[in-house]
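Forwarding these from the shared drive since the link keeps breaking.
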Amino acid sequence: MLEDLLTGAMQSVVYGIVGVVLMAAGFGLVDVLTPGKLRDLIWVQRNGNAALLLAANQLGIAAIVFTAIFTSYDDFAKGLASTTVFGLVGLLIMALAFFALDLLTPGRLGAIICADEPHPAARVSAATHFGAALIVCACIA
């Protein structure tokens, strides 16, 4: 029983690390998609548009990681690999959705997201990011 507990705890730590790394990659993705430094936009300038987009991205990645772990293979290595792969696929799909939305709408979406004034496009972009993540979740399940 103790061995199972320790094995489960170790696996939780490893899955947690993978999840945090994927969420950090999501932060990097949003930073690349938006002009300027995301850290400054959110934490210094208190930009609500950028914060909303990042929040949707982080929740989306968390949903993908959760779904991948929850539906994971019995084999830990396969489960870890699928979690990593689906997390990366999710990031790719989110970036693709951002670029598609940018092409379909007037102006530059990244610049709109960085605007000081709240903009409805930030909500649409956030929903697009989270929706892309849910599509990946459905593919996993």
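-- next protein --
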Amino acid sequence: MTEANTSSVPAASGEDIQITLTHHGKPLTYSFAQEATISDLSERVEATLSIPPSNQKFLISGKIGLQKPPFKDATLPLTQLTSKKITLMGSTTAQVTSLNTSISAASTPRRPGPIKPATPAPNRNHKRLQEEAQYTFHTLRPLPYLPHPDRSLRFLERLRDDAGIKAAMRTHKFSVPLLTEMDPAQHTTQESRTLGLNRNGGEVIELRLRTDAYDGYRDYKTIRNTLCHELAHNVWGPHDRNFWDLCRRIEGEVARGDWRRGGRSVGPDVFYEPDSGAGEVCDHGGWTGGEFTLGGGGGAETVVSSATGRGVSVGGVSRREVLAKAAEERVKRAKRVEEEGEEMGGEGSL
């Protein structure tokens, strides 16, 4: 449908009258006899513009309003329209034919082409997802009686979801029922600190996440390397050549699989590496036998080391003794640093 803004001019002097209308923004003026009617205007539009009466609409200013064939008053004299603004709206026969052709072509169903075989989405590897669900740490459990267990849980989640750890777990088909944190008080003596523990070939893996004084968390990469060490105990108990070859292999796989190269922080918390004093050991070999009770009491616990075959007490020191010893060691280290600084200052002044 086309639209035109029209304007009419007053009747010319003499016997003829002038009617001006606007179509598509262009004014068109026609001359008619004094007795001409609106039906004569319709016939002239059809003859000159190829707009059939069925497509014609005349928008006339004033009370007359919209008029279209067949007119209610076909004898309306054009002399009443000489002072009116007239807009012609309508489509030509060619335009209507073209529009109908386009509608028909669009509504005609197209013949379907050959069906292409479905291809899997490139970003979804179902086999890998299945392996990651099978070869993982199935339960993560912080120690509920230590401060802020939610932070420990996020640390354990970060280890489980580490890209390098996940790659190594899939490669070696490691499935660990429980990954938990270690209570520093239960595995700290005056001689050594145990960083990790693997019980019964991967039934439970414990990691020392916290510092000795419970006031922070250890460096993430240090804990991750300890986890690699404990995963190697899933296969080999004693610290022999077989164990160390596997441990180094796992560490390399984790480093290569960590596409983040350095990882990310766990929420807003800051995990720092404490002073690494003497006597820190990953473990004393893979542990077999014994009973594991999460959050158990402070009594001594005896397990059997597959490296030595002997029973070893791993819980004979109370938490108070550990905290006192840790505070004492921090004071000693601070004093040594101060003394060394004074000695260096004295030597430089000579």
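Confidence is low (pLDDT under 50) at residues 1-13, 262-278, 290-319, 344-350. The first strand starts at residue 16 and ends at 23.

- D.
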